[in-house]
């Protein structure tokens, strides 16, 4: 009997250096050095099925959204190696793989990340569509908090126990939601006469930048802009955006009235390459797109910028912009209170009305305006819009994510119509 060894892939790949170039700064609470967002290379993930024939276990990354950079069987444990698309990078290690076995058996799977701590609690699926969190009894963390990535650092790892059989088990950091899922959602909403979509550009690798239009009005003078998924693993942000948009497109009286007055545009998938390639954070251009809204070195940010410039040149006014993300906790990153927007005071009213309409809920909001190339700053600077980054916790219960998205949309519609 011999041990099957699969060589860890891409261990030796050279990582690209980071440079920070001081650029212009803007008035605001914080004056910061801007990150250089020039394109840089990414490492290709080698797509394959790793077969451990002695153990009768198979593990694969051959699907959209997968991330699994290497695997090896060491005694009874399957070691999986998860690396980012390039580095340095915000440590949000996304993973997604399929696993199965010849005979029913339990398997231990140990995660090893390159210079990053475990972030996403494992979710399991039998069909790649419906997902449940792993039973916490089958989850164990090692060296938590001890990893400092120095030379003597203990690796922070997670070991999970899986029940395998010949049917595929999907394992991922969050529910798998790729371009296929998001475009299918756009198609289904677009059955309504007042919803249409067009492509406002292409991603670096040629995937469509799909933009939905929601309107029942005769003219398009008042615009709301919604987008998300600049950061591929931020699935809870997408789930909140989905609930938000489904409320705007619903058949309530409020939504019908709103659609007659305001046109909403939605780019739900800002980083289709990163999502389908299973990236931790960056685009196929190798950078964080949500730092590129000053420099516009990337086709994804340029597509939205050029679209909004065209609309506003044609006479429309952008009243509100929201960019959905996920992080450790629910938080609203807004403009500061002294920024004078097209709808002064709207943000404060909106946040407090969300709070008032969700029992026992306390809003966590933080305002700032500075020169960084974050989407909300651009939407304010160039168009005077009230804007924010809407962050949803990674572990926020999904029904609550949905409720918050619905209430946020209802209160926004009500407040914008009140301004008439
Ligand atoms: Zn994000």
Amino-to-carboxy terminus distance: 77 Å
Q: Judging from the principal axes of the Cα atoms, what is the shape?
A: elongated
CATH superfamily of the largest domain: Zn peptidases
**Can you count the beta strands?**
19
Low-confidence stretches: 1-30
In the CATH classification, which architecture of the largest domain applies? 3-Layer(aba) Sandwich
Mean pLDDT: 90
* Largest β-sheet summary: 8 strands, mixed
The helix/strand series, from N terminus to C terminus, equals EEEEEEEEEEEHEEEHHEHHEEHEHEH
> How many independent structural domains?
2
Structural class: alpha+beta
- Rounded to the nearest angstrom, the radius of gyration is 22 Å
**Beta-sheet strand percentage?**
25-35%
Helix content: 10-25%
Secondary structure tally, helices: 8
The CATH topology of the largest domain comes to Aminopeptidase
By CATH reckoning, the class of the largest domain would read: Alpha Beta
* Ligand inventory: zinc ion
The strand line-up of the biggest sheet is: 12-13-15-14-16-19-17-18
What's the SSE blueprint?
Blueprint: E1 49-52, E2 57-60, E3 70-74, E4 77-82, E5 96-101, E6 105-113, E7 123-125, E8 132-133, E9 139-142, E10 157-164, E11 169-172, H1 179-189, E12 195-202, E13 208-214, E14 222-228, H2 235-248, H3 253-261, E15 263-267, H4 272-276, H5 299-313, E16 317-327, E17 331-334, H6 346-356, E18 365-367, H7 375-383, E19 386-393, H8 398-418
Parallel strand pairs: 4-6, 14-15, 14-16, 16-19, 17-18
Antiparallel strand pairs: 1-2, 2-5, 3-4, 5-11, 6-10, 7-8, 7-11, 9-10, 12-13, 13-15, 17-19
The structure holds zinc ion.
The site of zinc ion (ZN) has 3 residues, from loops.
């Amino acid at each position: 009997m011999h041990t099957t060894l699969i060589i860890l892939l891409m261990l030796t790949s050279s990582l690209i250096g980071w440079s920070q170039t001081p650029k212009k700064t803007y008035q605001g609470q914080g004056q910061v050095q801007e990150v250089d967002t020039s394109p840089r290379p990414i490492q290709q993930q080698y797509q394959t099925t790793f077969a451990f024939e002695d153990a009768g276990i198979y593990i694969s990354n051959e699907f959209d959204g997968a991330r699994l950079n290497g695997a090896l069987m060491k005694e009874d444990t399957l070691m999986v190696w998860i690396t980012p698309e390039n580095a340095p990078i915000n440590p949000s290690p996304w993973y997604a793989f399929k696993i199965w076995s010849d005979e029913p058996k339990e398997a231990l799977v140990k995660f090893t990340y390159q210079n990053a701590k475990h972030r996403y609690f494992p979710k399991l699926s039998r069909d790649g569509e419906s997902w449940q969190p792993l039973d916490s009894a089958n989850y164990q963390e090692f060296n938590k908090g001890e990893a400092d990535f120095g030379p003597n650092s203990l690796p922070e790892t997670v070991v999970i126990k899986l029940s395998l059989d010949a049917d595929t088990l999907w394992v991922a950091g969050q529910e798998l939601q790729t371009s296929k899922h998001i475009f299918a959602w756009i198609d289904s909403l677009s059955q309504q006469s007042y919803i249409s979509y067009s492509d406002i550009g292409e991603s670096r690798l040629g995937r469509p930048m799909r933009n939905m239009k929601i309107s029942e009005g005769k003219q398009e003078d008042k615009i709301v802009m919604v987008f998300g998924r600049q950061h591929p693993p931020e699935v809870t942000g997408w789930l909140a955006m989905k609930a938000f948009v489904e409320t705007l497109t619903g058949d309530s009286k409020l939504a019908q009235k709103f659609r007659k007055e305001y046109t909403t545009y939605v780019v739900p998938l800002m980083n289709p390459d990163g999502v389908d390639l299973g990236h931790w954070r960056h685009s196929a251009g190798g950078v964080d797109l949500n730092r590129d809204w000053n420099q516009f070195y990337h086709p994804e940010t340029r597509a939205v910028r050029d679209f909004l410039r065209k609309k506003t040149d044609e006479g429309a006014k952008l009243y509100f912009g929201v960019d959905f993300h996920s992080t450790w906790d629910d938080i609203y990153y807004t403009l500061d209170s002294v920024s004078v927007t097209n709808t002064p005071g709207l943000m404060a009213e909106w946040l407090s009305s969300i709070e008032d309409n969700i029992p026992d809920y306390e809003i966590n909001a933080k305002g700032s305006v500075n020169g960084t190339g974050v989407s909300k700053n651009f939407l304010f600077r160039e168009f005077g819009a009230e804007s924010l980054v809407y962050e949803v916790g990674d572990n926020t219960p999904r029904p609550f994510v949905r409720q918050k998205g619905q209430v946020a949309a209802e209160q926004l519609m009500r407040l914008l119509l009140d301004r008439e």
